[in-house]
Amino acid sequence: MDCDLKQLLAELGVSDEIATKLHEADISSVIDFATSDPNDVRDVINDDVFVKHVETLNDDAANIVGADDVLLAARYSLGLKRRQVRSDATPPGTGPEPQQQHHAHGSEPNEQQENIFVSDTGINFRSNVQHHHGNRINITITNSTLTNVNMCLTGDHQILDYTTEDQKKTFRERQKRSSKASVYTFNGQQNLQLRGDTSFIDEVHGQALSPKALEDVSANEYYPIKTKPRALLLNNIVFSAGSRLENRPEAKSDSEKLATLLKKLGFVVTKVENLKGAEMMQSIKEFRSASENASMTFLFIGTHGTRMNGIDCFAGTDGKLISFESVLDLFTESACAGLKDKPKIFFNQFCRHEKQSKEQIKGKEDRKVHDLKDTLVVYSTMPGCSAYRNTEDGTWFVSAFLKVVKDNAGRKEDLLSLITMVNREVTEQIGAEKQEDGNWKEAIQMCDPQSTLTRKIYFIEVE
User: Fold this and answer.
1) Is the Cβ–Cβ distance between 365 and 331 less than 8 Å?
2) Can you give the pLDDT at residue 155?
3) Separation CA 10–CA 74 (nearest Å)
4) pLDDT digits over 370-413, tens only?
5) Above pLDDT 70, what percent of the chain?
6) Residue 226: which residues within 8 A CB-CB, separation 6 or more?
7) Is the dihedral of CA 39, 40, 41, 45 positive or negative?
8) Which helix H or strand E contains 74, and what residues bound it?
9) Which residue has the higher pLDDT, 104 or 403?
10) CA atoms within 13 A on the CB side of 333
11) Which of 254, 227, 283, 274 is nearest to 461 (CA)?
12) Residue 96: CA count within 13 A, CB half-sphere
């Protein structure tokens, strides 16, 4: 019986005797458990409560089997560890607080051990644990051809390499203070042991294609990238008390990781946080002016939002609402001839709940038919819906985008194809949102891409 199923059964309070009977019935993994016939299980263990667990897992079997972490998915299904989320439209005081583990000064936590397996696309953290305090963590790379996978280590930590005697002799134990970070590069098959108060960050992998990689694609099928593309990342984390909007500390990593990724893809990146409404518009105008010679533009807006009288709006830190249509008006061919025939990408990470107001919200200006040609707008959620962020990992949409780009690094996939994969990732998220009345509801989300692109977008090295 594998360790994940043992862990799950222990959390359910299952005795060793029952665990042995399950193993003898060829139920040796979480997937076996989730896909078992409840009647067959009843024949082995005549316990109504236990069979009910199996029925619950059966109902969610598709999500569990397809999950990166089957143990975590099973926990969510059984309500053992429901992922708590917040939406980017939640008023202050609602929604769960992030759960953090603290240890008293001078105390030593119980030493635990986690096995972390590294795939050919990066590090997969078992049990979704990204922080270990005083624990021993074994990392095993199972692909002997794996090269140049980086893991960033922050905090006080030690690294021991037990792969071979030679490496053990030549690779010295390293210690870094929390003010600095070290990067260890995995090459080939290795076995490491890490100790200490350590946070692990799987580096965001991004790789621009060389023009040679697209030799078999007609030049008319994709946008040429002859000058550096430019990106502006606007992310509001801290809101004024008068705005009546809750802070978004979990979303801070969105702009940081996006900036890392886009720089690897050749973008000139400007990242700004915590702007009032008027300041956001001013930054966007300055970005538009600075981008007229760029081959491609990318604008990310992460904040709270709503749909006011049917018009999508986003909020500054002062609570002032800005119509997204007024942003699009700045990038039309009529308003900015320098961006004509060039791709313009907009990622909107904010909620789109419908509200009615007597306040006049600026809609779209009169536009010519082709004014918004070559534009891709991707809303993180559908009209009338919430856009969620985890209390630990950032927003669902951005996390999914980073994962998809990492998983497809170096592959010949155009941006719209990647967005399709992102949508699948987002729709497979599992979460629960706390309502104003204190009750919980299932958190579900689906992206809303809107395209007037006339060619494919590939991230290409500048010629």
Assistant:
1) no
2) 41
3) 13
4) 789 999 999 999 999 999 988 767 899 999 999 999 888 778 89
5) 69
6) 295, 462, 463
7) positive
8) helix 70-78
9) 403
10) 14
11) 227
12) 19
**Contact predicate 34/62, CB 8 Å:** no
Strands 297-302 and 344-349: parallel
* Phi-psi domain of 261 (left: phi exceeds 0; alpha: psi -120 through 50; beta: other): alpha
For helices 396-407 and 252-264, give the axis angle rounded to 10 degrees. 30
Tokens for 189, please give them. Answer: 């098959």
- For residue 79, what pLDDT is reported? 66
Q: What is the mean pLDDT of the chain?
A: 75
Spatial distance between the Cα atoms of 31 and 17, rounded to a whole number of angstroms: 20
E-strand ranges in 81-207 read 85-87, 113-119, 122-124, 131-141, 147-154, 157-161, 174-176, 181-187, 191-202
Neighbours of 38 (CB within 10 A): 16
Residue 131 and residue 85: Cα distance in Å, rounded?
Answer: 19
Q: 311 near 265, Cβ under 8 Å?
A: no
> How far is the C-alpha of 235 from the C-alpha of 200, rounded, in Å?
23
Which one, of 3, 132, 15, lies nearest residue 69 by Cα?
Answer: 3
Please write down the HEC assignment for all residues of 403-414: HHHHHCCCCCCC
Separation CA 397–CA 318 (nearest Å): 24
Question: Which run of H or of E encompasses 169?
Answer: helix 165-170
Mind listing the pLDDT tens digit for each residue in 161-210? 444 444 433 333 333 322 333 444 444 444 444 444 444 444 577 888 88
CA 450/CA 448 separation, integer angstroms? 7
The answer to whether 116 and 138 are in contact (CB under 8 A) is yes
Residues 97/73, Cβ–Cβ less than 8 Å = no
Give me the residues paired with residue 271 across strands: 233
Using the Cα atoms of residue 212, residue 214, residue 216 and residue 220 in order, give the sign of their dihedral.
Answer: negative
31-66: per-residue pLDDT in tens?
888 888 888 888 888 877 788 888 888 877 776 776
Q: What pLDDT does 365 receive? A: 59
Confidence of residue 90 (pLDDT cuts 50, 70, 90): very low
Q: What is the amino acid identity at position 211?
A: P
For residue 67, name the pLDDT band (cuts at 50, 70, 90). Answer: low
DSSP3 helix / strand / coil % (the chain, rounded to 5): 30, 25, 45
- 238: tokens are 């801290």
- Backbone φ, ψ for residue 209 (5° rounding): -75, 145
The model's confidence at residue 243, banded by pLDDT at 50, 70 and 90, is very high
